[in-house]
Every structure is written in structure tokens, then in C-alpha cells.
Write a structure and sequence with these properties.
Blueprint: H1 6-19, H2 24-38, H3 44-56, H4 61-104, H5 108-135, H6 144-156, H7 160-183
Helix pairs in contact: 1-2, 1-4, 2-5, 3-4
């Protein structure tokens, strides 16, 4: 892991917050490129851990991720710089849109732009899912786990909190079982 300045953290997360459309999951490819490949503040495994932790924390995914990465790289001041950088441009854009919303309603050009952005966001999220599945070592033996989770959440309305708790306990017991078996 390379050391970052507060300015680097701020500008990296400012770029991420400025150029990402579609929310937290659409940000993952840009975050990975910026944090893992370009600056090498995290490796792939740490990045996956940060994503998992950020999803499990209450609040906005992108802000949680900026907080965790900033804290890991530079402590509290790094967390603050990362979060401020991440939310600055979206806040400015939201304020500008809110001020001009009544002018934009019903504008065919604006509606067409948003219709064009939707498929791009879906493609970004889909690419992220496949890349995360690779990093998470999803294979022919465990591919059924995410499928079951999606079905439980989507069709049976099982709370993700229960799934996270059960998965955590199951993972702990699984690791403990295999550690003991290897020690024998």
C-alpha cells in the first residue's frame, strides 16, 4: 500500500463522485481503477473487503467506502478528505438541479439523456458483478450461494441483515471446521 496525501485522497474521490452516474455500484469500476490500479492504496482482496464492509454499514455506500478507504490510508483526516471529495460535486449538482427543476420538467432532451444513461448504468453494474464474482472466487462449487441470496431477498423478502448474519456465522463455522481438519 502506498502512502497518500490528503490532497490525493480528496481529488481521487472528487473524480469518483463527479464522473460516476448511477449510484454506488456503478462507482465500483472507477473506484477500483483509481484506488487499486492507479494509486495502489489497496490490493484486490482489500478492495473486496472494503466493498463488503461498506455495504454492511448503515448509510450511503459511496460515503461508507470513502470513509473506510480514507481512514485506512490516512486515518481520520484521510476519511474526512475522502468523504468531502466524494460528496462535493454531487451536492453541487443536486442543488443546481433542484433550483432549476421546474425548468427541466417535461424537457424532451433531458428525458432522452436520462433514458440513454440507464443502459450504461446497467452495463456498468453488470460488469462489476462479474468482476466481483471473479475476485470473490465464485466457481462451479459455490455459484449457488449468490443465486439463493437473490431469490431469498427478491421473492421471499428476507431481510439482507439476516442473510449477512447467517453468512457471517456460516463462514466462521466453515473456516473453523476446515482449520481443525487441516491441523489434524
Amino acid at each position: 500500500m502506498t502512502r497518500a496525501t490528503l490532497r490525493q485522497l480528496f481529488w481521487s474521490f472528487f473524480k469518483i463522485g463527479t464522473f460516476t452516474l448511477g449510484g454506488g455500484y456503478a462507482m465500483i469500476p472507477l473506484m477500483e481503477k483509481e484506488l487499486v490500479e492507479k494509486h495502489k492504496w489497496l490490493n484486490n482482496s482489500e478492495f473486496m473487503d472494503v466493498i463488503t464492509l461498506s455495504q454492511a454499514m448503515p448509510g450511503v455506500f459511496a460515503v461508507n467506502l470513502a470513509t473506510v478507504v480514507g481512514n485506512k490510508v490516512r486515518g481520520l483526516s484521510g476519511a474526512v478528505a475522502s468523504v468531502v471529495g466524494n460528496i462535493m460535486m454531487p451536492i453541487i449538482i443536486i442543488l443546481a438541479l433542484a433550483g432549476s427543476l421546474h425548468y427541466l420538467q417535461g424537457n424532451e432532451i433531458i428525458e432522452s439523456v436520462f433514458k440513454g444513461i440507464r443502459p450504461v448504468v446497467v452495463a456498468l453494474i453488470t460488469a462489476t458483478v462479474f468482476k466481483m464474482a471473479k475476485t470473490a472466487k465464485i466457481n462451479k462449487y459455490n455459484f449457488w450461494i449468490p443465486i439463493i441470496v437473490v431469490l431469498l431477498v427478491w421473492f421471499l423478502a428476507v431481510s439482507p441483515i439476516w442473510i449477512i448474519l447467517i453468512a457471517g456465522i456460516g463462514g466462521f463455522l466453515f473456516a473453523k471446521f476446515f482449520e481443525r481438519k487441516e491441523d489434524l
